Amino acid sequence: MDRNIPKPVDGYDDGAEPLVFYAPKGSYRKYEQKIYSDLASGVTGPAKGFFKVLVSTRANKLTLMAMIFFVAVVLATSFLSGGKNQRALSDVNLTLSAFSFDGRVYTSLEMKESKKYSRKNGLLFTADFCAVNSDSEVSDKVSDHVIFLPSESKTIHCVFNDYELSKIRCKVTTDDGNVELECSIIHK
Predict the structure, then answer these.
(1) How wide is the angle at C-alpha 76 spanned by C-alphas 74 and 80, nearest 5°?
(2) What is Dmax (Cα atoms) for the chain?
(3) Best exposed site among 25, 29, 149, 154 by fewest CB in 10 Å?
(4) DSSP secondary structure string, the chain?
């Protein structure tokens, strides 16, 4: 052993007795704030239970309300948006769907007039279908035209060979503009 290692300091001088403080039991409580003495004695305690903790303080209440608000906004927007397979163009509601059966993918684009449809004559729609494989590459394309007449529902059907296709994209064009739809293929 090395004898040059200094001894740790005990907190008092050599030969002196250590200081010892004596206080009557519990006398320090009279100098505490009331909230802390009540907490230590068990008069008050922290809230127990999940919901009580969530609303125990003002900051927790505000955080809970903010979380509820954001969840409601996300649910409302996802419910009202309808997804990528439903859009409207020239007051006509468009719905794209596709399913796979027996090595082929059957695709349909359904067109229905909306409540605010006001045209008296027909409207020419051009639908460009693209079949996208699992590598996100376009493997096949088909184009079709249809004249949409008021108070009639029209459906454009299209068939692709299923070479590991994952989704169908469709670009619908009219004189008023264009819109893109996309749907996943349901495998049966």
Answers:
(1) 120
(2) 113
(3) 25
(4) --TTSPPPP-SS-TTPPPP-----TTGGGGGS-HHHHHHHHTSS----SHHHHHTSSHHHHHHHHHHHHHHHHHHHHHHHH--TTEEEETTEEEEEEEEEETTEEEEEEEEEE-TT---SS-EEEEEEEEEEETTS-EEEEEEEEEEEPTT--EEEEEEEE-SSEEEEEEEEEETTEEEEEEEEPEE-
Structure tokens belonging to residue 176: 């008023």
Tokens 């229905």 correspond to what residue?
A: 112
Is the pTM higher than 0.85? The answer reads no
pLDDT-derived band at 43, boundaries 50, 70, 90: confident
**111 versus 151: which is more confidently predicted?**
111
Residue 73: phi, psi to the nearest 5? Answer: -65, -45
Is the pLDDT score of 10 beyond 70? Answer: no
Of the pLDDT bands very low, low, confident and very high (cuts 50, 70, 90), residue 136 is confident
What is the pLDDT at residue 81?
Answer: 67
C-alpha span between 86 and 172 (Å, rounded) = 12
Q: Residue 84 and residue 75: Cα distance in Å, rounded?
A: 16
Write 134-139 long-range contacts (CB < 8 A, 24+): 134/164, 134/165, 134/166, 136/166, 139/163, 139/165
